[in-house]
Design goal:
The complex is a heterodimer of chains A (about 375) and B (about 290). Chain A has about 375 residues and is of the alpha/beta class. Chain A is built from 12 helices and 14 strands. Helix content of chain A is about 45%, strand content about 20%. Chain A starts with a helix and ends with a strand. Chain B contains 12 helices and 2 strands. Classes of the chains: A alpha/beta (about 375), B mainly alpha (about 290).
Amino acid sequence: MPRLRNFIAQGLVLGGALLGAFSASAADVKIGAVFPLSGPNADYGDTFMLGTNLAVEHVNADKMLSGTLSIIYEDSAATPQRGVIAANKLVNVDQVPYFLSAFTGVSKAVAPISARTKVVAINGGGVGPDLATLGDYFWNVIPLADFELKAILPYLTKKKGAKKFVLIYVDDPLGEAMKKGLEQGLPALGAQLAAAHSIPPTAQQFASIAARVREVGPDLVYIASYGLQQSQIIKQLRDNGVTQQLAGYSGMGLPAVLQLPEAKGLLYTTQRVNFGSDDPVTKRFISDFKAKHKKEPSPYTVNYYNSVLLFAQLAAALEKGKQPVTGENLLKQRLATKEFQFAGGKVSFEQNGTVVSPIQINEVDGKGGSTVVE
Amino acid sequence: MLLLQLLINGLQVGAIYALTAVGFSLVFGSTKIFHVAHGAAFTIAGYIFYMLTVKAGAHWLVGLAGSTVAVLAFGVLIDRLVYAPIERHEGSFFTVFVASLGVATIVQNLIGTMFGRGFVSVSTPLSKGVEVVQGVYVSPLVGISVVCGIGCFLALHLFLTRTHVGMALRALGENRDLVRAYGLNPRNLSTLALALGSLLVVPGAVIAAASSGLNPAIGAHVMLISIAATIVGGVGSLVGAACGGLLLGMAENLAHWGLASQWSEAITFVVLLLFIIFRPAGFFGSAIKT
């Protein structure tokens, strides 16, 4: 028995040493992602991962980095509390230099961790305007809601003739920002926000909200929610006699909304992505995505593809200059780079770390797609 | 008119809540199993109905039959494969609770993997409201919900009071040893309670698929309401659970009359809290004497 014990002990020591040596010699590059992978917003996580996984495949196929790039996914369930736990794990345990974030509430919660530890956090899904003010280490590859409202409100008031708006908004930082945006933006356009109904993120019954909306008799109902709740709101509004024009922000660009027959005619904003661009990055992204998933990519998919691509471009430049890939160096490199070649075209960042991108207005066809109306 | 509309909405939601709460209360009252996976039965019923009617294009009756078979199988299997082994090893109440929670989580993830984690619904003209009086919209689903609720509850009541098996099931909650002394098998009765309790979620799940839609996490919400309704109605009382479910559905909708919309969900727990403080035994429950 003592011999057996010695043998096992020696084996364990040898195994540990080999494992350590192997880990040390491998130059794998890891980044993190704090996505909603469970709960009612998991649909977003799935959509985001279509972009990130394709980007990792492309980066590794092109050998852009000295090692193999991989992503450690952590589940935020779209809640700030779990987002903070996930970000802490990525930064302190996995020691990633860069992680992807999503959702306004989650992003605002993880931003202090990113700032304190000088690890870059990049958002491609949350659109709360506050996200532009979260410090040097928090970047956005998605235009924020204030830009979306600036684009859609003139269209809705002038071209659609909507003067009386009702807002249904989720009771969180995103919803509050949208409410503020409508309150400030509508009077200047000769329109008014006649009523605003806040809802908890977990609410699932909206027939009574529909009754209150009908009472006001608006020209248009603007929905500022996310995840499956959006589909529930749209279906229940339509089922309960709300026939007015519906509108929303980029959160509507989910398959569940686009496929909903009741959503037909809904107008929503997204950043303009030129899928017809001739540059090789866009062409490759589109062709590989369609070959793999047999559908068009959503703007979220593009954003998270670009988020990973941005890291690879910055890290490759740092490796070329023999500098370590740290959050601080990634920030310096981003500030030193004027333009980035992304899927959808060349983009630049504003000083506050948010991309500059034009906005387009889309109309849902209710069959899984949408058409650009402006 | 708004008040009338809110009452009608509350009736529909309350009928669904009442049925799911009665199912949970039946299981808990007779077996003492804190069956958290009751919400998973709701999810399974809804998604099987969706799969058969929308994906496979089958008639709604086929969908209904499929849902019924699926939840019956779920109820029987969870009792035989999860609760029975724990009971054999004299597992505690907490062990059963954790096992049930585990099953609910597995079901949620399986459904998400199979059907996607987004929103799905069954499109039907029955969910479209029509204006019956100026400003009041009523869909046929409101009537169906109420009729189903009353019908299922009466059928269950007759079963429990007029049949020997039903009486045995009631006795199981009172005195397990006495049931055994009468030559009945408590284990088989437990399985029956699980099957019946699961069966009661079918109408609510099918109506939810057509009205508010489904998602893999819907079971958690259903479970929360079922527990609250059981406490409000009085633990062990099926009439109480039904009244509790109806009250919560009504309260959730009537909260829109005068209160901000964001309070509609919180009102459920305000009602629950008030009952816990002022009437801990619920509507029809009896106070526990030490």
